[in-house]
Structures are given as C-alpha cells and as structure tokens.
Amino acid sequence: MNIGVLGAGQLGRMLALAGYPLANRFTFLDTTGHPSAGIGDVMVYTDQHHLDDFLDKVDLVTYEFEHLPVALVQAIEELRPVYPSSEAIRICQNRAQEKALFDRLGIPTPAYRLVQSAEELEAATRELGAPVVAKSVTEGYDGKGQAVLRDPAEAVDAWRSINHPQLVVEAFVDFVREVSIIAVRGREGDVAFYPMAENLHVDGILRYSLAPMPDLDETVQQTADGYIRALLDELDYVGVLTLELFQTRDGQLLANEMAPRVHNSGHWTMDGAVTSQFENHLRAIQGLPLGDTSARMPTCMVNVIGQEGDAAAILAIEDAHLHRYDKSERPGRKLAHVNLLAPTHAELLEKVHACACLLPEAPEPRFSFEDS
Amino acid sequence: MNIGVLGAGQLGRMLALAGYPLANRFTFLDTTGHPSAGIGDVMVYTDQHHLDDFLDKVDLVTYEFEHLPVALVQAIEELRPVYPSSEAIRICQNRAQEKALFDRLGIPTPAYRLVQSAEELEAATRELGAPVVAKSVTEGYDGKGQAVLRDPAEAVDAWRSINHPQLVVEAFVDFVREVSIIAVRGREGDVAFYPMAENLHVDGILRYSLAPMPDLDETVQQTADGYIRALLDELDYVGVLTLELFQTRDGQLLANEMAPRVHNSGHWTMDGAVTSQFENHLRAIQGLPLGDTSARMPTCMVNVIGQEGDAAAILAIEDAHLHRYDKSERPGRKLAHVNLLAPTHAELLEKVHACACLLPEAPEPRFSFEDS
Fold this sequence. Notes:
Chain A is 30% helix and 27% strand. By secondary structure, chain A is an alpha+beta fold. Chain A has three domains: 2-82, 3-Layer(aba) Sandwich (Rossmann fold), CATH 3.40.50; 111-171, 2-Layer Sandwich (Dna Ligase, domain 1), CATH 3.30.1490.20; 175-371, D-amino Acid Aminotransferase, Chain A, domain 1, CATH 3.30.470.20.
C-alpha cells in the first residue's frame, strides 16, 4: 500500500515511521516549499503535473496538515480515496464553521461572537467582557493570527494586527487546565479513544502533554469521548481526530478547537500507549482493526523548541525516548520531543523537571494536579 | 549523523526505523545484489567507486550482516570508524576461530572437532558419538552448509554435500532449550544485558523467541551475562552482540555461536523492552548513553516465514505488533515478525497459539517451561 500524505513535516515523518512496519510506502506532497519529513518520497507541489505524478504513485491519500487548499483536496478526492475527507479540512480551516458544528452537536464552547469589523470587535469585547481573545477565522496556527484584548479600546489595534476580514472573539475561560482528547475511527465506524492528556502551552505553543491524568474523573473522560464521537460520526470521519478543550473549575469541558489529524498532544502515545496515534491513523485509513489505545504507564511528552538540548543527557534519563525531527534550529520551531515514562506520577514529574533542565528554552512544567 | 550500514536487509531497515528519531540518516551498502531495506539511501556495491560514494556520505559505519569480505571492512576501517570492528566479523565468519575464542575465554561449548577430510569427519563422528552435526567453518547461515550424521558411515555423503575444505563437527547436546543472550557495549566500555530469550528453531530457522523466561534461574542469567561480557571486553566491542546457547538438563549453558549484530532473537525488544536492541546499537556506536534493557512485560516474537498471513487478523490480537519487511513471499523467507505482549506468561501463550493459527507455515509453539 503506497500512502500519499499531503504535507511533509514531522507529523508525516512519524506517520511513515509507524507505517513502514505495516509495509506501507510513503509519498509526500508538500505545498509549503519547506518539506522536512526527511523520509519516503517527498514531492514539492507547484503545478498540476506534480499532482499527477503524486497520484500515479499512491493508493490512498491522507494529510498531516489541514491548511491545504480545499479545492486541491476535493480534486484529489475525485481520483483517490482521501481519509479523513475534505469536509473535515473545510470545517477545521474555518473557526466559524467549527464553532457552528460544535453548537449543532451540543458540544459546549466558550461564549463567542463572530465579527467583521473593528467596531464589531469592540462591541463583542464589551458584550463578552474583557479580556477576550480574537482569532482570524482562517489560517491560524500555533498562536499566529490571534490577539488578546484586555479592553474594548484595543479593538482597532487588534483588528489591524490580525488583518483578516472575519474574526471569532472568545470570552476568556477561567479554566483549571487545557486538555485534549484524541480518538480514531475506522472505515466501518469503529471508534477507539485515548486517555485524555493535560497540555501546557506557552505563547500558544504546546510545551508538555501528560497522560493519563492522575486526577481525572472517569465521567469527564466519558463526556469527552461522547463529544469527539459525535464529531467523528457527524463527519463520517476516518482516521485520528483531536479535540482540544478547557476544563473549568467545576469540571465542565469547553471545546476550544479540533484538528483533523494526528496531533502534538498525542505524541506521548508513541511510547506510552499500546498503539500509537500514528499507527492507529494508518490502521484506520487502510481498513485494518484499530489497536488498543490504553496507556502503558504515566507518560509525559516534552516538546523541544528552538534549540536541541543535549541529546546524550536526555537519553541518560531512564525510560526517556527522544524523537528528533532532523530540522535546523530556529526560535519557536518544534525540533523534537521527549517521551518520559514512569510507574507513578510523582516519579514522572521528577523526570519531567530533570528533562526540562536540559532544554535551554523549556518553561517550568507545572500541571494542574500538582496544586491539589 | 549519517550512518553507513553494510548490508541492506530487514535488520538494516529496522536499524533505520530506530535511528530516524535520533536524527540519524542512513546509507546502505548492499553486497548481495538483493537489497530489501526499502528505506534510506540504498547503494549496491559492485566496484570501488560505489565504495567511495558510500564513504563520502557517511560519518561512521556499522553492519547488519557479517558475511562480508573482511578485506572490504578492513579497508573501510582505514577511512571511517567501524563499529563493531572488523575483528568481530573475522572471528564470527569462522566457526573454528569462534570456538577457539570461546575456549580461550572459558565459555563452555558442546564437544567438537575440526576436520579437513571425509576420513577425519568419520573419525570425529566415531569419537564424539553419533549423532553429530557437521558445519562448514565459513559461510553457514540459517541451517545452510550443515549436515547431521546419525552414523559414522554417513561421513562421505555429508562431506560431499557440505562441500567445504574445513568443518566443525559437534556432539549433539541433550539440551532442554535453545536460548540467547543479547548485550550492548558502548564506546566507553559500559555494558547492558537484555533478559535472555528462549528460542524455538525449525530446520535451523528461528520461529519463536520468548523473553523473559518464566523459569529462568537468576544465576543462569548472570552466567550468560558473564560469558557475553567476556566476549565484548576481549573484542573491545562496540554495539550489540548476540550469543546463542544451549541450556542442558542440569542447567548448564553451552555456547553455540555468536552474531556481531542485532539479532532475530532480539526482535521482541522492539515492543517488549524499554529500549530496543536497534536503538541501543545506534546509541552505542554513536557514543550515546545506553538505554534501559529491562522487559516491560512477557513478550513473544513470532516469525512470519514464507507467506504473510492475514495482517488484519494478526492486528486484531490485543497488544500484537506487526513488523513487516515489505518483501515478496518465497518459501523459507523471513517476511515479518509479530511481537505479542501479555501481563502473564499464561495469557501470552494463548496469544502465541492464536497468532500461530493465522500463519500458514507456523510450527506449533512449544516452550520448555510448558513441560514443567
């Protein structure tokens, strides 16, 4: 089975590493001009004949990057099976569509407004109560295209800085933690759910994901499972889907956004779960049985951002698993991640702190359950 | 770090899959004309200019196949670091040298004789007591170049069928089981040992490896650790070394042969150990700290030989991990392996039987500890 992947970054690289053992071969179609997968057959898309070459090589198509021209994915869908479908991309590319879908399925979200001018932004900020966060409805990624407004008077500046014709304005949520639920749905509609992860972001970039959470109420996991199952079924989705949520002080979950792909907050599954999110995505899109999503033991994923750190020192930590992306260093760039495993959460936190000390730009890892 | 690998089969493929996450890149030099790695940059060696190209690309060299021209490896050693050294290849290519090394280090072996004619073969068979096994001193692999003599009168036929100027003749050992010990030695002389595996062979081809063994006396593991450490230190060895042994009824270990590389009987470590043999080999040769060699839980590796079997049915077994080599089917060919994990040995054996039923040519898995 030759699998075509739209996008050619580290997510595609890790898909390929999970797929070689299934005898899959990989052809990547990069649309950014900056492929970094460093594995398989990488093609850079600039015109139609690249697309034809790509399609000649592949039996089915998936993607590791949702900021793709929807028309391109729809055109591919006419010629090859595409999992997940272009519909998932279309919705995930537009925060307004995404929020409407959440609303339709009864998945709670933070209060929000759609605005199309600085005046509307100011009014929405007033209505929701500052601070608010304003986000362009399209093309946001890792904190780009966003602004925090601490006062309605900042609306003109914020409007100008985001520079987009339509924004979603969201009330700030007094959340205890950011969490994510990752699930996978097979071609026959079978679904498997990973244990939820607690995620620590700094400046909109994920820094740590920890799963399973020691203090997670089983009913909260079941609520999240229900939300993501509704999304999967509504979209007749095939593959891995990620839903990021806020958990409030009273335990409620509010959907933040979803990603129609394997996700950074699921990298812990590479070493910490029986079956990784990458393998399960590939199993799903090929119509193979889904693998067990259970955690083997408490696991924390530590992102390596901007600078590599000392690989030897990281590898000297017991049960540390380094996953480098073979990219050059650049501020803010995701270069690698480390998965740390330990039999107890207390031991795990010790390792996380030890690992963070080895990474020049790592913020302090402080999880919500440490406060209790 | 660009790593050059001599040989380009499934062992090289799995080395590469373990090495991408360390940001290694791989260039393979195949000397057989039939590379199957299907990953990295594969070059077929036919003349000197291929070797020059290969060396231009790589920072250090290792191998996944020891049946290489020693002179070639020695020539490479003049220009690039080679781990393990050519000395390990030289000895492992010659059963007479290998036995002499075992003798010198006090590692017990089955009684043996070296013979250089049919007459000497007949005499050795008489002396050791039939049945005996005769093996060419060089080029044997997976049961090729061997003959069992049930009577000294078979010496002429056996000599002719093996067709080699020097043979090792070994007394049959009344063994309870075949086992192997895999260890890894770093550049600084640090050593880590994997739990021993019990191996089931049929017609000289490995079919099952199970580790850890439920009934293994700790002192037996320590004895094996001592033997392999003696070999590693004597050869100033860097990387993974495998020693295959017989365990006799009274618990004694007798060395059968060694392999200067990652080994089929260590494939269980890919899913069943904290650090796989492949990753540890790469850590060792790059001077990185060795990873934890502990087993996560009882694991059995099932080889897929000749025919693929039903991948979907295999993947439906809980905690089954399929590793295909993306090769075409051919009788006797190693095509894939499945690692099965279970919390207890009883559950593991159930899975092994279930898996064997899905493989057209799998013999019955029957481990020594099932008899007790």
